[in-house]
Design brief:
The complex is a heterodimer of chains A (about 110) and B (about 200). Chain A is about 10% helix and about 45% strand. Chain A contains one helix and seven strands. In chain B, about 55% of the residues lie in helices and about 0% in strands. Classes of the chains: A mainly beta (about 110), B mainly alpha (about 200).
């Protein structure tokens, strides 16, 4: 037991304590103007297109108004969907962590768009 | 003469060991954003095994993985553990990435191959010199045993379960406001512009 404690003490003495760091997430929101298997392009209110890469770890959530979220997949994304993307900068590009989107409501028959 | 040679040799050995230990500890300065070397990881793993009481390893989970126990554990994990470990246990969170050592991927063999007793002991007593606190000493141990059931379930976690957990992750007023803002946008409010740097975003995964 004494040897074990001594060995344990020696090992622990070589280890360092943990600490915290800050993140640098980017949130992108707008309307999808282009979508492929590997990326999605979003146009926000400022009119600038922003491309975000879709990666293996990206999660997709379909938001059904007013408050229901359900799992989705990349192939569910379509041009015209409203989208909120939580992304991580990677070099000069953005990688999507989470893509939350909603399908635009179909126009009600008999009502004209104004 | 022989004694002085022995003393000199001993001093050289001590200095060498000290230099090696310093090099091991101080690679990349003392930054917590560094990744532990293989040697450190090996030492840490074995230190944990040595520190674990032998009777802890053999403890058997008294609880069954019922739907109710797993759901309780899942929401408990979302509220207490996910901020470092992530809802899916992969450890790739803002806090996790900033720790030294980083939290392990709980779905992988290094964790899944531990006995139920070892997982329970780690939850109850924490791991010294890491970010893992001791959660024990607050009465019933049922919550910790339920978490052991959930850790076993992590490799099979479904997207629906992960989304439910997301609703139970701790959030500050700013995050809640942002979440509401995003919901309003998806529910039909106009876009606010893109992209928005988010330097204090909480871990989402």
């Amino acid at each position: 037991m004494g040897t074990r404690s001594l060995l344990l003490g020696m090992i622990l003495s070589l280890l360092a304590a943990g600490a915290f760091a800050h993140g640098d997430k980017v949130h992108v929101r707008g309307t999808i103007t282009n979508v492929s298997e590997t990326s999605v392009t979003v146009k926000g209110a400022d009119g600038k297109p922003v491309e975000v890469k879709l990666v293996k770890t990206t999660s997709f959530i379909l938001h059904v108004p007013p408050s229901t979220d359900q799992p989705a997949k990349a192939s569910d994304l379509a041009v015209g969907d409203s989208v909120v993307i939580h992304a991580t900068p990677s070099g000069d590009s953005l990688q999507a962590d989470e893509v939350r989107f909603t399908v635009p409501a179909k126009p009600t028959p008999g009502k004209s768009a104004s | 003469m022989k004694i002085s040679v022995l003393l000199l040799g001993g001093a050289v050995v001590v200095l060498g060991v000290g230099a090696a230990a310093a090099a091991l500890l101080l690679h990349d300065g003392v930054s917590a954003s560094a990744t532990p070397t293989r040697a450190e990881a090996f030492l840490a793993r074995n230190a944990r095994l040595l520190a674990m009481p032998s009777n802890a390893r053999a403890m058997v989970n008294p609880l069954q993985p019922t739907a109710e126990n797993l759901r309780e554990a899942r929401l408990h994990f979302a509220d207490h553990c996910a901020i470092c470990h992530g809802n899916d246990g992969n450890g790739d969170t803002m806090l996790g990435r900033g720790m030294y050592p980083k939290p392990p991927d709980l779905r992988m063999a290094n964790t899944q191959n531990l006995s139920d007793g070892e997982l329970f002991w780690t939850i109850e007593h924490g791991v010294r010199f890491t970010g893992m606190p001791a959660f024990g000493g607050h009465g019933s141990t049922d919550d910790s045993w339920k978490l052991v059931l959930f850790i076993r379930h992590l490799p099979q976690l479904t997207a629906e379960e992960g989304m439910e957990m997301g609703r139970y992750n701790p959030k500050g007023p700013e995050d809640r406001e942002e979440e509401q803002d995003e919901n309003d946008f998806l529910n039909g409010a106009p876009a606010q512009g893109t992209p928005q740097p988010k330097s204090s975003a909480p871990p989402r995964h």
